Amino acid sequence: MLGPVILAASRSDKMRRLVSAAPGTKQVVARFIAGETVDDVVPIVSELSGRGLEVTLDVVGEDITTVEQSYAARDAYLELIGRLKELGLGERAEMSVKLSMFGQSLENGHELALANVRPVVEAAAEIGTTVTLDAEDHTTLDSMFAIHEELRKDFPQTGCVIQAYLFRTEADARRLAANGSRVRIVKGAYKEPAEVAIQDKPEIDKAYVRIMKILMDGEGYPMIGSHDPRLISIGQELARRAGRKLDEYEFQMLYGIRSEEQNRLAAEGHRMRVYTAYGTDWYGYFMRRLAEKPANLLFFVRSILTKG
User: Fold this and answer.
1) Which of 59, 90, 112, 257 could cysteine-pair with 103, CB 3.0–4.6 Å?
2) pTM summary value
């Protein structure tokens, strides 16, 4: 039951200071975060691409409080796209964005987030790539889906994320699959109340499989975000039964996790995309990675004790 505790800590400024100051933190963070700047991450994109892997890039940072910060987030993505264009990496790397970074929770946040994300989607399209809107806590999803629908009018390749642990997600999956959307399915990494989300892990896995089947049988492009070998195997079988070719769906995993499996899937001809985060505001993202898997927390604690 450590997951909910860690997720609560991800919102604590006191815990942020303690974790940031802990010996060994930098080493462990480097396992999950590709760097702090565009200059740090571009060589990693080139290296992953050279191994036959594709990439989705996330400039980390969520809890903004000012309109100016939302503009800075937009500009960080535009800078990234400019560098990808220079290096000819547009077709190998897409972007993942959290609309909270673009001002979604501020006054008139829906309109602000849409206004900020649109130029990023436009710039991405110009270099032959696209943007996926990440899912955040359940209170933000209606706005996220509405922005996704609006962007798809001009940029139909714009993707979105759904979370298997939410009760609403099967209905969302049916709608998105019928619309021909690019959809990443994940289990979910936010602390959600029992009224809106499944709390039992085996039941979440069952929901994940049901939703994968909806996506594979639909008209869209499924993106299977999982490190679970069993779910990956089931995803392959569901794709086979649905008659999908290897380029009609993809797998996605986090940077720094199960790299050998990433290479194996790519070598077998699967599209394998690595979710690669970078930036200075890494704390919230890092804590959710710890919450998702106890082994990550043990790795962190062991590193602190070793360096301490």
Assistant:
1) 112
2) 0.86
CB 159 within 8 A of CB 181: yes
Token pair 């077998």 in the structure block, residue: 268
Tokens 């992953």 sit at which residue? 48
- Calculate the CA 175 to chain-centre distance: 21
Place of tokens 């609403």: 168
Given the residues 184, 273, 288, 289, select the one marked as catalytic: 184
Spatial CB neighbours of 291, under 8 Å, sequence gap ≥ 6: 2, 3, 4, 6, 7, 10, 189, 297
204-219 pLDDT, tens digit each:
999 999 999 999 999 9
Q: For residue range 35-94, what is the model confidence (pLDDT) as tens digits? A: 888 999 999 999 999 999 999 999 987 678 999 999 999 999 999 999 999 988 888 899
In the block, tokens 């990496």 appear at 89
- CB atoms < 10 A from the CB of 77, how many? 25
Candidates 58, 74, 92, 134; catalytic one: 134
**pLDDT tens digit sequence for 92-133:** 899 999 999 999 999 999 999 999 999 999 999 999 999 999
Q: Is 184 a catalytic residue?
A: yes
Tokens representing 228 are: 């679970």
Token pair listed for 287? 């804590």
Q: Would residue 40 show up in a list of annotated catalytic residues for this protein?
A: no
